[in-house]
């Protein structure tokens, strides 16, 4: 019998090298983008408890920016921004401090559906990863893991959006 796999199933040598999670979020794209583009905010919504902290003041503004993130294992990562469309898309390639990126990429894409709803897509692409030490972890990264981060980001963005709308409503009543 030939090695035919049911849709969605893979063998280790056929592991998907581009993994994606997507969902609709009840918050505006600018609010969500602010949470992703500010590294100091990322540990608040990291669904895999991998990100420990990032120094304040590293808000990403342009392709070529580099931000530093401390991981929960105590190591630092320099993240090289390779795509940026303010409010819509951001992507970075991680690297050990002082080294070139290893070849994997994290991307966030935001598609405004209306003023208060956004389609959020999170992608991990390791198709160019050549660092043998990182391949096992890359292969183990699943859509469910990405979805955990998208879900936590959604919950945070929706709470912040609701609080901002509530505060704006109180100001209108008081005014």
Structure overview:
The chain has 175 residues and is an alpha+beta fold. The protein has one domain (17-165): START domain (Alpha-D-Glucose-1,6-Bisphosphate, Chain A, domain 4, 2-Layer Sandwich), CATH 3.30.530.20. 31% of the residues lie in helices and 30% in strands. It has a 7-stranded antiparallel beta sheet with strand order 1-7-6-5-4-3-2, with helices on one face. Helix 1 crosses helix 4 (143-174). The radius of gyration is 18 Å and the shape is globular. The protein starts with 17 loop residues before the first strand and ends with a helix.
Q: Do you know the CATH architecture?
A: 2-Layer Sandwich
Superfamily (CATH H level) name: START domain
Number of H/I helices: 4
Note the main sheet: 7 strands, antiparallel
**Using only CA atoms, what is the Rg?**
18 Å
Amount of beta strand = 25-35%
Shape: globular
Low-confidence stretches: 1-11
Overall strand count: 7
SSE order, as H and E?
EHHEEEEEEHH
Q: For the residues shown, what is the average pLDDT?
A: 90
Structural class, please? alpha+beta
Tell me the CATH topology.
Alpha-D-Glucose-1,6-Bisphosphate, Chain A, domain 4
Number of domains: 1
Summarize this, please?
The protein contains four helices and seven strands, in the order βααββββββαα. By secondary structure, the protein is an alpha+beta fold.
List the helices and strands and how they pair.
Elements: E1 18-25, H1 29-37, H2 42-45, E2 51-53, E3 66-71, E4 76-85, E5 89-95, E6 105-114, E7 117-125, H3 132-140, H4 143-174
Antiparallel strand pairs: 1-7, 2-3, 3-4, 4-5, 5-6, 6-7
